[in-house]
Design a protein that fits this description.
Largest sheet: 8 strands, parallel
Number of helices: 14
Strand content: 5-15%
CATH architecture of the largest domain: Alpha-Beta Barrel
CATH superfamily of the largest domain: Aldolase class I
Number of strands: 11
Bound molecules: flavin mononucleotide
Order of helices and strands: HEHEHEHEHEHEEHEHEHHEEHHHH
C-alpha cells in the first residue's frame, strides 16, 4: 500500500489536509467546521483541563460524523486524565507532540486509536517510526507555536523525513495556500498540516484582538525565542521585548521561566492581552489579510492547489 493510501485510511477526509491542533485556538467549533469542509479537524487539548476536553468531545460527537483527532502535547500534567477521556470517547486519532512517542502509542493503538506524532528532525522521525506510530507530522521552523531546537525549515525537513521513514508523512510549517500544499506534496509529503491560517478563521477561538493584530503584522514580526526553555515562535510585542531585555541582562533558564510565568499564552491568544500575553503564530502571519469561515479557506486552498497542479504539468522538459 502506498503511504498516500495509508494516510487516507487514517484521516478518511476528502482532502489530506489536517487543521492543526493549537492551544487556545482549536476547540470543537474549528475542528467540526474543518471536518465538515472536507479536511481533518483536530481539537487542541494542550490548553484544556480534563472537564473542558470532555465538553469539547461531547460537542464534537454531536456535530461531526467523520474521524477527527485530539492533539496531545505530552508534557501536560493532566495527561493521564486526557488519555482516559480519549479512550472513553473513542477518539479515532491522536496527534502527540512535545514528548516521547514511546509513552502512549502502544496503549492507544491497542484500543484501536491511530497515532500520529509531530517531529522537527529526521532523528526524531526515525525514533517515532521505531516507536510504531502510524504517521508523522514533519514540522519546520516556520511554524507557529513550539518548535524544534535545530531550526530546520519545512523545505529541508520534508524530503529528508520522506527518505528516512516508510510511514505516511504530513508536512507542516509555512503552508498557507494551495501552492504551499503542492510544494509539500512535490517534496514527498502525503498530506499537510496547517495551523496559522486557521487561527484567522471565524471558527477559531483566538481572541478578536489577537486576530486583528495578526492582520496588521508584517514580515519579520515573528521570531523563534526562549530556546533554553522550549523554543516557541512568537509575534513581537511588549512581552517579547521583555524577553529580549532579559537576554541582554544575561538571564539564565530559571530567570526566563520566571519571566514567562504561567498563563501567558491564554492571556495573549484567548483573552486578547496584546501587551503582556504570549502570542504564538507562524511566519505566514505576515501574509494573511482576511478572517474567513473555514469553508471558504478550504475552498481557496483546493482551488489554488488545482491551478498549481495545472501549471506544474506545463513545466518545461529538461531532457
Ligand atoms: C497558536 C498556535 C498554537 C499551537 N499549539 C500547538 C499545540 O498545542 N500542539 C502542537 O502539537 N502544535 C501546536 N502548534 C503547531 C501546529 O499544530 C502546527 O504544526 C503549525 O501551526 C503548522 O505551521 P503553520 O502555523 O505555519 O501553519 C500551534 C501553532 C499555533 C499557530
Amino acid at each position: 500500500m502506498s503511504t498516500q493510501q495509508a494516510l487516507q485510511n487514517i484521516l478518511q477526509s476528502k482532502y489530506p489536509i489536517v487543521q492543526a491542533g493549537m492551544v487556545w485556538c482549536s476547540g470543537w467549533k474549528l475542528a467540526a467546521a474543518s471536518c465538515n469542509a472536507g479536511i481533518f479537524g483536530v481539537i487542541g487539548a494542550g490548553s484544556m483541563y480534563p472537564e473542558i476536553l470532555d465538553e469539547h468531545l461531547e460537542k464534537m460527537s454531536k456535530n461531526v460524523s467523520t474521524p477527527f483527532a485530539v492533539n496531545l502535547p505530552l508534557l501536560y500534567p493532566s495527561i493521564h486524565e486526557h488519555i482516559d477521556l480519549i479512550l472513553r470517547h473513542k477518539v479515532p486519532v491522536v496527534i502527540t507532540s512535545a514528548g516521547s512517542p514511546k509513552k502512549f502509542t502502544k496503549q492507544l493503538q491497542e484500543s484501536g486509536i491511530k497515532v500520529i506524532h509531530v517531529v522537527s528532525s529526521v532523528l526524531h522521525a526515525q525514533k517515532a517510526a521505531s516507536a510504531g506510530v502510524d504517521a508523522i507530522v514533519a514540522e519546520g521552523v516556520e511554524a507557529g507555536g513550539h518548535n524544534g531546537r535545530d531550526e530546520i525549515s519545512t523545505f529541508v525537513l520534508t524530503p529528508s523525513v520522506r527518505d528516512a521513514v516508510q510511514i505516511p508523512v504530513i508536512a507542516a510549517g509555512g503552508i498557507r495556500n494551495g501552492r504551499g500544499i503542492a510544494a509539500a506534496l512535490a517534496l514527498g509529503a502525503d498530506g499537510v498540516q496547517i495551523g496559522s491560517r486557521f487561527v484567522l478563521s471565524e471558527e477559531s477561538s483566538a481572541h478578536a484582538a489577537f486576530k486583528n493584530e495578526l492582520l496588521r503584522s508584517k514580515e519579520g514580526d515573528t521570531i523563534l525565542t526562549l530556546k533554553e526553555l522550549a523554543p516557541v515562535r512568537l509575534l513581537k510585542n511588549k512581552f517579547f521585548q521583555d524577553i529580549l531585555d532579559a537576554y541582554a541582562q544575561g538571564a539564565d533558564k530559571e530567570a526566563l521561566a520566571q519571566l514567562l510565568g504561567k498563563g501567558r499564552a491564554k492571556r495573549g491568544m484567548f483573552e486578547g492581552d496584546l501587551i503582556e500575553g504570549e502570542l504564538e503564530i507562524g511566519q505566514v502571519a505576515a501574509y494573511m489579510d482576511t478572517i474567513l469561515p473555514v469553508e471558504q479557506i478550504v475552498q481557496s486552498l483546493i482551488n489554488e492547489f488545482s491551478a498549481t497542479k495545472e501549471k506544474i504539468t506545463n513545466l518545461p522538459s529538461w531532457t
